[in-house]
Amino acid sequence: MAAAAAAAAVGGSQSPQAELPAPGLALDKAATAAHLKAALSRPDNRAGAEELQALLERVLSAERPLAAAADGEEAAAAGGGGGPGAAEEEALEWCKCLLAGGGGYDEFCAAVRAYDPAALCGLVWTANFVAYRCRTCGISPCMSLCAECFHQGDHTGHDFNMFRSQAGGACDCGDSNVMRESGFCKRHQIKSSSNIPCVPKDLLMMSEFVLPRFIFCLIQYLREGYNEPAADVPSEKDLNKVLQLLEPQISFLEDLTKMGGAMRSVLTQVLTNQQNYKDLTSGLGENACAKKSHEKYLIALKSSGLTYPEDKLVYGIQEPSAGTSTLAVQGFAGATGTLGQLDSSDEEDQDGSQGLGKRKRVKLSSNTKDQSIMDVLKHKSFLEELLFWTIKYEFPQKMVTFLLNMLPDQEYKVAFTKTFVQHYAFIMKTLKKSHESDTMSNRIVHISVQLFSNEELARQVTEECQLLDIMVTVLLYMMESCLIKSELQDEENSLHVVVNCGEALLKNNTYWPLVSDFINILSHQSVAKRFLEDHGLLVTWMNFVSFFQGMNLNKRELNEHVEFESQTYYAAFAAELEACAQPMWGLLSHCKVRETQEYTRNVVRYCLEALQDWFDAINFVDEPAPNQVTFHLPLHRYYAMFLSKAVKCQELDLDSVLPDQEMLMKLMIHPLQIQASLAEIHSNMWVRNGLQIKGQAMTYVQSHFCNSMIDPDIYLLQVCASRLDPDYFISSVFERFKVVDLLTMASQHQNTVLDAEHERSMLEGALTFLVILLSLRLHLGMSDDEILRAEMVAQLCMNDRTHSSLLDLIPENPNPKSGIIPGSYSFESVLSAVADFKAPVFEPGGSMQQGMYTPKAEVWDQEFDPVMVILRTVYRRDVQSAMDRYTAFLKQSGKFPGNPWPPYKKRTPLHPSYKGLMRLLHCKTLHIVLFTLLYKILMDHQNLSEHVLCMVLYLIELGLENSAEEESDEEASVCGPERCHDSWFPGSNLVSNMRHFINYVRVRVPETAPEVKRDSPASTSSDSLGSLQNSGTAQVFSLVAERRKKFQEIINRSSSEANQVVRPKTSNKWSAPGSAPQLTTAILEIKESILSLLIKLHHKLSGKQNSYYPAWLDDIEILIQPEIPKYSHGDGITAVERILLKAALQSRMNKRIIEEICRKVTPPVPPKKVTAAEKKTLDKEERRQKARERQQKLLAEFASRQKSFMETAMDVDSPENDIPMEITAAEPQISEAVYDCVICGQSGPSSEDRPTGLVVLLQASSVLGQCRDNIEPKKLPITEEEQIYPWDTCAAVHDVRLSLLQRYFKDSSCLLAVSIGWEGGVYVQTCGHTLHIDCHKSYMESLRNDQVLQGFSVDKGEFTCPLCRQFANSVLPCYPGSNVENNLWQRPSNKNIQDLIKEVEELQGRPGAFPVSISSETNLSKEMESVMKDIKNTTQKKYRDYSKTPGSPDNDFLFMYSVARTNLELELIHRGGNLCSGGASTAGKRSCLNQLFHVLALHMRLYSIDSEYNPWRKLTQLVEEVNSQLGNEEQQPEVPILYHDVTSLLLIQILMMPQPLRKDHFTCIVKVLFTLLYTQALVALSVKCSEEDRSAWKHTGALKKNTCDAEKSHEVLLSFVISELSKGKLYHEEGTQECAMVSPIAWSSESMEKYLQDFCLPFLRITSLLQHHLFGEDLPSCQEEEEFSVLSSCLGLLPTFYQTEHPFISASCLDWPVPAFDIISQWCFEINGFTERHAEQGKALLIQESRWKLPHLLQLPENYNTIFQYYHRKTCSVCTKVPKDPAVCLVCGTFVCLKGLCCKQQSYCECVLHSQNCGAGTGIFLLINASVIIIIRGHRFCLWGSVYLDAHGEEDRDLRRGKPLYICKERYKVLEQQWISHTFDHINKRWGPHYNGL
User: Fold this and answer.
1) Which of 213, 366, 624, 732 has the fewest C-beta atoms under 10 angstroms from its C-beta?
2) Residue 1010 pLDDT
3) Rg (Cα) of the chain, in Å, rounded?
4) CA torsion angle 801 802 803 805 (round to 10)
C-alpha cells in the first residue's frame, strides 16, 4: 500500500511542504530520516509520503550527474557537493540514511540479514573465478558450486573437478532442480524457511518508498548517457564513461541484494511493479526533465530497429492470446516453406546472384506474420527497461552481477526469465553489431545458463512465452545475414544458399551463445518433446540446418598451387558441430524408447523433404560434379542418426522410414564422394590446395568430430548398400575412386581419370573403404559398452595413452545426458578390463614420464582390430605404429616371429535390419574384381602392393564368413558351362564361384601391350576357335556400363518417374573408358579359378614350389573343430591357408578341388617381363637401398667411435685421479699429463704458450646458505599463522657473525677470520672434457656468427661442450706439470714438526715464488687472469664485497679462498654430508678442484699477508709481551685467534704456499690447526655447561695436570681453559636470563667426548676432501661412528703407534707445536681482553654452530588443493593486490607475482628479482594456477614440470582438468637433487630467455 501511496504522491503538485534542514551533516540526515519514518508509520501517511517524495526529488535529481559533468550548472544543488562525484556520494548517503530510517546503516544491514531464509547460495562470480563441478551430484551438466559450498559438502569419492570459469556463473548449492540434495553443503542443507521469523513491517518500509525512485533515477542516468554511436566511430569510450559514473549506484544495489531474502523480495516488488513504472516513466508530468528522458528512451528504441507500439492491438509477449501463437507459427512455417524453393518464375530473377541473399531476407521478413518476435518490444516494468539498457550497454559486468544476484528470489527468477526471453531477438541484434562480441557472449551465457538449466523454468517459459519459436527464429535470422549462393554441383543454376564461412559471424563463433542456450533447453525432456511434436518448428529447423549443407566447398586445384590458403574450414567444422550436431544429439537423447517412435518419424519425414528440396535446388541428377567436395552434409547426418536410433532403441521397421531406390541412390552419392576424396587427399592429389585440405580430412575423422561426421556417413552408406543392388553399389565405389580402368587382366591399361602414380593408393583406398563398410558394426548391432571397448582398444593399440588423453580421444556421445560420459563407471571398468597401468617412472636423463595405460596381452591376442584403427587414425603413421606394436607383441610372446599381417577379427553379429549389407560380398561384380586383382598380383603387374593383396584376402574371408546357408553339392553341379556362356561366374555365391574356372578373357588393351603381339590361339586351327567360343570366353567387363544399365533399370522401374524423360548425360567425360581409339581387343588364356590362384599365391609368397599342402589331409580333426589358434596371427601365407581351410569347410566340392589342384604339379610362375623403364626404376630402388645400408653402417661406426672417445676422454682428462706411481729405486719416468682437445682432436700436454683448459660451468649458488640446524624440515606455509623466518639458515648465521666481528675488530683482520660464499658463492663444475684455449676461442667465434637461435647467450661466454653438449660458460686452464711431481712430494719425510713449521712460514713469506713469474705475461697467465675475472663476475657484487672500505684487496682475498671453501662444502653435501661412503667422489671423474686451486693460489699470492698479522705466527709461537694490543684504544684490535674459523685458516695457509704443495707441509698445517680447533671446542663446551659443572671439571682436571700425557687429555685441557677464562668476565654475566641456554643434562665423560668430536668433524671432512683432491689419495669408507678416527688417521693426525684397544679419545690426535698450556693461556688472554667490555658478544662468538643439516626444499602438503586454496586468493605483500599469476618460492616460501608489472623494480619483475636475492640467480617457483614448477637460472628459464600428479599419474598443467592432485615424492626428490647438485642446466633441455619479465 505504501508504495501505491507514494506513487500517487508523485503525480501531485510537487511543492516541498516542510522546509528541510540544510542537508549537510550526517546527524541531520539521520534526524530527517527518523522523522520521515515516524511520519510514514502513522495510519494516514499522505503527508509523510509527499514529504519523502519531495526530498527524493531534490536528492536524486536526474539532470545533474551528466549535465553537471558537462557545465556544472547545479553542481551544489543538493548541499555543497564539489563536483559531480561529490553529489553522487551525497545522494547515496541520503539513500542509506533513509533506508535505515534514522538508525546506523550497518546495523540496518545486520538486522535485515537476520531474516534471510538462506536456502540457496546463489553466489555470483565472474570470469576466471575458481569453481567446482561434481558430476555425481549434478542433475544438470552445467551445475557448479563455489569453493566454500564445495568444501563444506561431502564429495569424497565423487567424480568432481575444479575449473576456471570462462564466462562467469553462480553457485547452485541448495537448488534441488539442478543438483541432488545429498551434495548440498552444511549451510544450505536445512530448508530454513520454517524457523525464520516474519519480517517486521517497519524494518523495510522506507525501502519500499525509496527504492523505486532510486532505480528510476538509475534508469534516467542510463537514458541520458546513451548516445547512438555514429556509423563509423565505435562509441565504447562514451559508454564506459557513463558506466564508471554509475559504478557506486550499481554497487549499492548489489550490496542490497546481498542482504538476503527479505531485501530481495522488496527489490523484486519494486522491479516488477507495473504501476510504479508507469507513473514514474511515462514522461507525462510537467517535469521537463522526465519528458526529455522519455524522448531519449524512444529514440533508443527506434534506433534499435524496434517499434514502441502505441496501439492497443499489439501482439505483446506478456499476454499471448491462445490464437496468436499458433497462427503465427503456421504463418511462419508457410513462409519458410515457400522460401525453401525460390521459384524461378520470380520477376526480379534478373538481378543475379548479388541480390540473392538480400532478397531472400526481405522475402522472409515480408512473409512472416510473426514479426513480433523480431521487432516489437514493450516495457512494462523497471526490470524490463533495466534489462533493455543492460543489453544496450553491451552487458556491463556490474549490471549482470546485480541482475543475477537477485535470482535466489523465486518470483524474480520467473519474471526475469520471461523478460530475458522477450528481449532475445534484441540481444542477438546487439551481439551481431558488437565489437567486443567475445566478452559479450560470455556475459550473455553467464545469464542464460542460470535461467535455462532449470527444467521447470524452461518448461514454463516454453509454454507461456514460446521460447522455442523465439530461439529458432532468432537463430534463423542470425544466419540469414551471411548467406551466399552455393556452387556445389551446378554453379550457374543452383538455387541453394549456404552460410559464408569467411564472415565474422562464423569465424568468431558469434552465434555460440544462442546455440548453447538452444542446446541447453533441448536437454530438458519436456522442452524437447514440444519441439519434436511441433511440425512447423521442425520444418523451420531443417531449413536452418540446410544453410550448412554443402558449405565451405573445396574445388581441386589442377594447375598451380593456390596462392592464399583459406582457413575457413575451422569455422565450418565448428559451426556444423555446434549449430547442427549438438542440437541433434540433444534431441536424440529423448528418443530412447518405443513410445517415442512418432518423434523419429517426424524428424525423418522433414529431413527427407529438406534433402529432396536440396537435391532439386542444386540440380542434382545422378553424377556428382568432378573435383569438388564438401565435408558438410548435416541433413544426411540427421537422417542417418535418427534412422540408427529408430532401429536400435525404438524397434521401428527400417523399411518404413526409408525412401525409394532413386532417393537412396542420390543419398549415397555425396557421402561416398567424401570417402573417395579422403583417399585422394591422402594420395596427394589435392596437394595444390595447400595444407588446409589435409587439415579438413583430419578434422573429419578426429575424435571430437568423428561421431557427428564420418560415423553417420559410413552408416548411411551401409544402409544404402543394404538396400540397393549390390552390383550397382560396388561398381559405383570403384568408379568414384577412379580405379575402374585399373581392373583389367591386361598388364597395361590406360586410365583416363587418374595419373599412374596415384593408382595404387587409390586402389588401396577403395578396398580399404569396402572393408570398413562391410566390417564396421558401430551402428549395426553393437551395444554401447561394446562400442566403448572397441574405441578404447583401437586408441591403446596405436600408442600407450594417459588417462586424460584417452578421455579426450574416445568420441564421447556428445550429449551429456546419454550416460556414457568418459569418466563414468563404464569407462573405468572397461579401461581396467583392457589395459594395464604403467606407473610414472623417471629416466636418468630427467625426462618426466606420466602414468600410462598399455593394452593387456589378451587384448593384442584377441581384440586388436586394424579396421577400427584405420577408421580412427588422424595421422597415417598411427596405423603403422599399431602394427609395429602388434608385431613386437607377437615376437615377444613367441606367437609369430616374422612380419605379421593385420589379423582378421570376428565381428559382432549384424542386426537383422541390415542383413542386406552382406549381399555386397556375394555379387559377381565384386568377385570379378577380386579374381582380377589376385591374377594381377600373381602375374606381378605394376601398381599393386601387399596392402592390396591383404585387403583382397580380407574381403574373400569376410565373404566366406558371411555366406548364405551351405549350398548343396547337387545344385552346384547343375551349373554347367552352358549356363554362363557370356559371363564370368555362374551364380552370386562366393563359395561356389571360388571354384569356377575361367579359361579365356577378352580384354581391351593398348596396341603397345605385350598381349597383342602374341598369336591368338584362334590362328592355329579353325576348330579350336569354335571350341573357344563355346568354352565361354568371359566378355570385356565394363563396370561403368553395368552401373549405367542398373541405374536406368531402377529409374524406369519407379513408377513416379515413368512419364519423365530420361535425363540426358551431363558430361561426356565419364562415359565408358572404351571410347579411347587406340585400344584393341585381345583374348587372354587364363585357366584359373580363385582357389587355384590362392594356392599359387601361397607358393609365390613362400618362395617354394608346392608349398601348400591341405591341412586336413594330416589332421581330419581340423574340419570338425575349425577355430585353430595357429591361424589367428601370421603373415600372408597364414591368411591364404586360413581362407582355403574355410573354403573347404563351406563345401565338399571346394575341398575336393583344392586337393586336385595340389596334386597337379603346378607349372612355374611365368617369369616377370621387365621393360626398360621398369628396369630403370628397379635399379634406382636397388641403388637407394644400398646407399641406405652404407649410411647406416657409417652412422653405427661413428657412434661407436664417439662412445670410445668419450670413455677415454673421461679417463684421461683429470690428472689428479691418476693413481700415484710406485716410486722405485730406479729413476722415475717423468710423464706429463696428456690432454685431448675435443675440438681439434690432438693430444698433448698443457703448456704455457698453448694451454689446455677444462670445460667448466661457473654458477653462483646459495644452496649452502639454505642449510638449517634443525632436523625437522620446513613446511610450505598454507595458513596465515605459518611463516618461515630465515634466521636459522646457515647464511643468516654467518652474516650475523661477520657483522658482529666487524663491529668490534679491525676490518682487514675480520675478513681473514671467516668464509663467505654461503650465499652467492661460486660453484665450479665440469663435464671433464678438455680443449685448447685457442681452439675454444675460434669455436666461440663460430657460435657467434651462427644465426641459429640457441638456448644460450654467446655474448655472455656461454657455449655447449663440443663433445657432450653440456652447458658451460668458461674454461679453466690446466696447470702445466708432470704427474709424478705429486708423488715426489709425497715421500714421507722424517723432519720433526718444528722444522716443518719453519719451512711453511718461510715458503709463505716468499712472494710469487712460482714457476711462472707474473712479470712475463704468458698465454697461461693471461688465461688464468681471465678465468679469475669470470669467477668474480659470476656472482653479484653484494656477495663479494663485505669489507667496510669498498674495493679493498682484503675483499678479493676473502672472496678467493671462499670460492675454494664453497666448492669443498658443496662436494661434501653431494656426498650426503659425511665421508662414510669413501671412494672417489660422486663427481670423481668430473672434479676440477685441482685446477681451481692452482688458479686461486696464483692470485692469492699476489696479496702477501703482512707477516705481522699472519695467523700462522699466533698459532705456532708464543708472543713475549702483549701489552701493545691493549694500549691502542683508538685502533680496533685484531680478531682473537679463538674467534677465527679454522677451515678458513686452513685454506688461507694452503693457498699461500707455492704450488704444488708438499704432502708433509700439508700435514703439518693440519696438525697445527687441529690444536686450535680443539681448544675452540673446549671453550665452546665450557660456555655451554652450567656453573657447577665448570667448577667440578676445573677441579678434576687440575688433579691430573702433571701426568705424562696431560697435553693429550681433554679433562686436563678443559680444566685449564676454564681456569684461564675465569680470569675474564666471560662467565660472570650468567644471570637468570641465561639459564635458558644452559642445557639441563649433566655432562658425562662420554657426552663430552661426543661433543668434542662433533665439533671437530666438519673440519676433518673438508680437510680430507682437500687432501684427496690435491694428492689423489682415495678416501677410506667407514661406519658413521668411526668417521672421526678413520679421517684423523688418514690425515696423519693419529700417531701410527696408536693402540686401538681402549676406546678412542679425540685428544690423542693433538700434536702441540709449543707447550699447550702456554699457547692456550695466550689465546685465552685475547678473549678476556675483549670480554672485559663485551661479555655478551664475546660469548655469542665462541659458540659456533657447526653441525648443519643437509639443505632441503620446503616440504609440500600431500594434496595440491591445500596450496591452491590458500595461495590463489592471497594478496601480494608488495602491491596488496591478488596477483594474476601467483607463484611461491620453494626454497624460502616467499609469495611473488609472476610477470606482475605491479611489483616491477628497475625493469626486473618480481620472480627474477627474487631468484637473485634468494638463490643468487637460481629460483625454483611453483606456479599456483598451473601446478607447474618453473626454474629461473640467470637470464634463462625453463618449465620443469609438475611434482603434483593426479590419481592416474598425470600432470595437470594449468589445472585444465581440475582433478585432485597429489604430491609425487619421487619427482620432488629429483627436483631437490637437481637443485643441490646444480644440474638444472644439464638435465633440462628447453631453456629460453626471460628478458627479466617473469
Assistant:
1) 366
2) 63
3) 47
4) -70
Distance CA 41, CA 43 (A): 6
Q: How many Cβ atoms are within 10 Å of 283's Cβ, its own excluded?
A: 17
Quickly list DSSP for 1508-1545.
Answer: TT-HHHHHHS--S--HHHHH-SSSPPPPPGGGS-HHHH
Cβ(450)–Cβ(170) under 8 Å? yes
Res 118: pLDDT: 67
Q: Residue type at 1535?
A: V
DSSP string across 564-585: S---HHHHHHHHIIIIIIHHHH
Q: In angstroms, rounded to a whole number, what is the distance separating the alpha carbons of residues 360 and 1753?
A: 70
* Dihedral (CA of 685, 688, 691, 696) sign: negative
Beta strand extents in 372-470 (DSSP E only)? none
Tell me if 960 sits within 8 A of 1139, measured CB to CB: yes
Spell out, as residue ranges, where the chain has pLDDT lower than 50. 1-26, 62-84, 231-234, 309-369, 815-820, 822, 966-982, 1013-1032, 1055-1077, 1164-1171, 1209-1230, 1378-1385, 1408-1415, 1481-1484, 1522-1529, 1631-1640
CA–CA gap between residue 1812 and residue 1821 (Å, rounded)? 13
- Report residue 1121 CA to chain centroid gap: 52
C-alpha cell belonging to residue 1217: 685421479
Residue 557 DSSP class: -
3-class state of residue 634 by DSSP: helix
Number of neighbours of residue 933 by Cβ within 10 angstroms: 22
Q: SS3 letters for 1617-1648?
A: HHHHHHCCCCCCCCCHHHHHCCCCCCCCHHHH
**Torsion over CA of 1811, 1812, 1818 and 1822, rounded to 10 degrees?**
0
How would you classify residue 231: left for phi > 0, otherwise alpha for psi between -120 and 50, otherwise beta? alpha
Grid coordinates of 1130: 601370421
CB-based contacts of 1449-1453 (< 8 A; 24+ apart in sequence):
1449/1503, 1450/1307, 1450/1308, 1450/1311, 1450/1312, 1450/1503, 1451/1311, 1452/1499, 1452/1503, 1453/1311, 1453/1312, 1453/1500, 1453/1503
User: Nearest 5°: CA angle at 1665, between 1660 and 1671?
Assistant: 120
Q: What is the dihedral of CA 337, 342, 344, 347, to 10 degrees?
A: 110
8 A C-beta contact, residue 522 and residue 603: no
For 428-472, how does the pLDDT look when each residue is reduced to its tens digit (9 = 90+)? 988 888 888 888 888 898 899 889 988 889 999 999 988 999 999
| Phi, psi at 1367, each rounded to 5° | -70, 140
Per-residue confidence (pLDDT) for residue 74, from 0 to 100: 34
In one-letter notation, the amino acid at residue 213 is: R
For β-strands 1033-1034 and 998-1006, DSSP reports them as: parallel
| Residue among 1576, 1605, 1892, 1522 nearest 1746 (CA) | 1576
Provide the edge-to-edge strand list for the sheet that holds 1836-1841.
1791-1793, 1782-1785, 1818-1823, 1828-1833, 1836-1841, 1888-1889
Distance CA 146, CA 153 (A): 11
Q: Report the C-alpha gap between 1501 and 1072 in whole angstroms.
A: 100
CB 1876 within 8 A of CB 1470: yes
Looking at residue 1757, the DSSP 8-state letter turns out to be: P
Cα angle for residues 102, 107, 111 (degrees, 5° grid): 105
Burial environment of residue 912 by CB neighbours within 10 A (0 to 12, 13 to 18, 19 or more): exposed
Helix, strand, coil shares, percent, the chain, to 5: 55, 5, 40
pLDDT value of residue 1179:
64
Alpha-carbon span 1257 to 1359, nearest angstrom: 10
